[in-house]
Amino acid sequence: MGGRDLVGQGLEQLQRGLRPFVERTMAAAWGTDWIAEKQRRDTARFGGGKRGYGLGDVRFLLRMITEEREIFKPALPRPGLSLASELRDVGNAYAHDFDADAFSAVEARQALDTMARLLELAGARSQARIVRGLLNGTPAGSARKKKQSAASSRRSQTRTSALPQADPLPWTENSPPQRPARSPRRPEPRSQRPAPRRPANRPRFGWKSGCALGCVASVALPLLVTSVSGWMISNMGDSSRKPSSIPTGPFEKVGTYRAVSLPNGSFVSFLNSPKRPRRLVTTSAAQNRRNKAQADLFFRNGYLDTDLHQMGPLASGRSADAKGCLASTARVERIRPGAVRGKLCVTGKNGLVALVAVRSARSTSAVKLDLTVWRSAARR
C-alpha cells in the first residue's frame, strides 16, 4: 500500500474520531447552530469564498480546532493544537496532490503517528488504535473484523454449553465392556538404552578440529570485514560533494525572472521558459517522463526539490553569480521555502546554474521565486 493510500485511510479515521469531539465542544460554546455562526463570522472576516463547512470534511474539523483555539484549549490537552496544525498541512497536501508518490514512507508514518496522538488526546481511542494498526501494517477494517469474529465465537460457545447434555448409557450385558486404560510406558533405564550409532562415512570432529576452524574464522572474518569496509568507503561519495555533472566556466547570463509563481506539484525548466511553470504529473505517462527529464526545480508537498542533490545555500562571502554558486559546496536534497535564509544555488541540466531567492510562500499551496540563470559557454 502506497504512502498516499495510508494517509487517506488515516484521514478517514481522523474524521470519524474528531467529529463528535468538535460537535460537543462547539455546541457547548456557541449552541447547536454553531456551523452557521462560523460561516457568518468567516464571511464577515474574509468575504464570500469557497470554504467547506461540512462535518464530513476532516479539514473543516481541523480548521475549527486551530482557528478557535481559545475554545478548544480547555478541552484538548497539549500538544493537541500543534498536532492539529501539522495535520492541516497533511490534509491540504492530500487534497491537492493526487500522485501515488505524494507521500514517502517516512512522511506517511509521521502523519499517521500524529493522527493517532491527536485522536488519543481527543478521547477517540478506538480510531487511534485503528491508525496505530495502519502504522504496523494492519488494514483499517481488520481490527473490527477480529472483534466481530471473537464475539461470534463466544456466542456460539455459550449456545453450545447451554444445550442439555445426554447422560452416558449404563453398561449392560449386551453392550461390550470398555477396554481398561493402558498405563503409560515407562522409559527404560539409561544403562539399558542402546548407544547411538554413527554412520561409517561421518567424519570425526574433536575439540582440536573445532578449535582449528574457530581460529581460522576469527582471523579471516575481521580481515574480510576490513577489506569490504575499505572498498565501500572508497566507493562512497560524500553527500556534500559536488555532482560530477558540474558545468565549467566561462558563463553567460541567460536571464532574470522575477515573481515566478510555482504552485504545488509543478516545476520549472531553466532552459525552457522558467517564467511559465508546468505540472509535474499529468494523465500521460510519456509526458510525465519528459517532465521528469526537463525539471530543474520543482515544488511538491511544501518542499523545494531537485531529486539530484544539486541544491544548496549560497555560502557567506561568495559572489551572487554562477562562480559563487559553484564555490558553495553545501548540498541539501530538499528544503522548505520558509527555512531558506538568503539565496539558494541550483545546478540544473544542460550546463545551467541558477540563483534562487524566495519572495513568499503560502504553506504548501504555492511559492513565489526570483530566478537568475546562467549557462556554461562550453555547453552551448
Describe the structure.
This protein has 380 residues and is of the alpha+beta class. The chain folds into 2 domains: 3-144, no CATH class; 251-379, no CATH class. It is 44% helix and 15% strand. The protein has helices at residues 3-30, 34-46, 58-67, 69-72, 80-96, 105-121, 125-135, 142-162, 207-235, 285-294, 322-327; strands spanning 251-263, 266-268, 278-279, 297-300, 303-305, 311-313, 334-335, 344-347, 352-362, 366-376. The strands form 2 sheets. It has a 5-stranded antiparallel sheet. It has a 5-stranded antiparallel sheet with strand order 3-2-4-5-7, with no helix packed on it. The protein starts with a helix and ends with a strand.
Helix content: 40-55%
Number of strands: 10
Number of domains: 2
Order of helices and strands: HHHHHHHHHEEEHEEEHEEEE
Order of strands, main sheet, comes to 1-10-9-8-6
Strand-residue proportion: 5-15%
Largest sheet: 5 strands, antiparallel
Structural classification = alpha+beta
The radius of gyration is 34 Å
The number of helical segments is 11
Give unreliable regions as ranges: 166-175, 207-211, 228-244
Average predicted local confidence, pLDDT? 76
